Amino acid sequence: MSIGCFGRIRLASGVAAALLSVGSMLAGPANADTAISTSMDAKLNAMLPAKLKEAGKIRVASNVEYPPFEYYDTDNTTIIGLDKDLAEAIGQKLGVKLEFENMSFDAIIPALAANRYDMAMSAMTDTEERRKKVDFVDYFISGGGFLVKHGNPKNIHSLADICGVTAAIDKGTTEIEDARLASEECVKAGKPEVKVEVHPGTSKIVLALQSGRADVAMIDTSAGAYISQQHPGEFEVPDASYAPRPYGLVLPKESDDLAKALQATVQALIDEGTYAKILAKWGQEVGAVKEVTINEGAGL
């Protein structure tokens, strides 16, 4: 769910809070206690900058309020989520510990620019504007997508499939413009326009879909996948994003050695299957990548 007015291009904190209010969203997945483990790779460890090997840790900035990527467990102390599991696996591969520190989302890039942290993990979208100040190791794809009832009764897989249906959309998001443009294309093709219902918050659009007042919710694919995981047998995300945008591990500029080490490490986790296990644990298979890249969010 791209929220341009918040400058985040991922759910803004208020919307993330609304997401937590949908059903029992604060709970982790049913398999939350499943341990993700891998083994150290000496070649990858050798790629780390000397200061990080000597310290035995990597300092990670994060905004811990964005389920399912990073958020606090019910004890309000333990950080859990996809990013946290991935960080644990990265640390095991590299032979160091990744230590998270919570901060506001808009403070992360300034903190990296000031070299207060070695990297950030916070479901941050790789954009051209951000690349002026930081670098990205891209490890996940998200963006505009659909949440539908189980079985996809309206057979919605792309923007071309929403002609004549009622779409519930969160106020202030770019999905509103996506729906408007799609509706124009529908009319040009002689098909019915898209019926748009704008609601104040993620929980409202999910309720509209749940009650049958909407045929589809237009929502970020990662958020949609999380909701469908929390409501098994009720919702599903039919396909990958129609407007893909990469999430990246975020690094200060001139961190080339660390960037290459992280790129190689996450690629190793993909190749051995650990990455897939982490995504499956958090219901995020829809955002999987096959190849880890650096600064590939071109045009965003």
How does this structure look, described?
Helices cover 33% and strands 23% of the residues. Residues 1-8 and 10-15 have low confidence and may be disordered. α4 (82-94) crosses α9 (256-272). It is elongated, with a radius of gyration of 19 Å. The chain has helices at residues 13-20, 42-47, 50-55, 82-94, 108-113, 175-188, 202-211, 221-230, 256-272, 274-281; strands spanning 57-62, 71-72, 79-80, 97-102, 119-125, 134-149, 166-170, 195-199, 216-220, 235-236, 243-252, 293-294. Strands 1, 4, 5, 6, 7, 8, 9, 10, 11 and 12 form a 10-stranded mixed beta sheet that branches. The chain folds into 2 domains: 4-31 and 41-142 and 246-290, D-Maltodextrin-Binding Protein, domain 2 (3-Layer(aba) Sandwich); 144-236, D-Maltodextrin-Binding Protein, domain 2 (3-Layer(aba) Sandwich), CATH 3.40.190. With 300 residues, it is α/β, with parallel strands linked by helices. It has 10 helices and 12 strands. The relative contact order is 0.20.
In short:
The protein is 33% helix and 23% strand. The chain is α/β, with parallel strands linked by helices.
Topology summary:
Layout: H1 13-20, H2 42-47, H3 50-55, E1 57-62, E2 71-72, E3 79-80, H4 82-94, E4 97-102, H5 108-113, E5 119-125, E6 134-149, E7 166-170, H6 175-188, E8 195-199, H7 202-211, E9 216-220, H8 221-230, E10 235-236, E11 243-252, H9 256-272, H10 274-281, E12 293-294
Parallel strand pairs: 1-4, 1-5, 7-8, 7-9
Antiparallel strand pairs: 2-3, 5-11, 6-9, 6-10, 6-11, 6-12
Helix pairs in contact: 4-9, 4-10
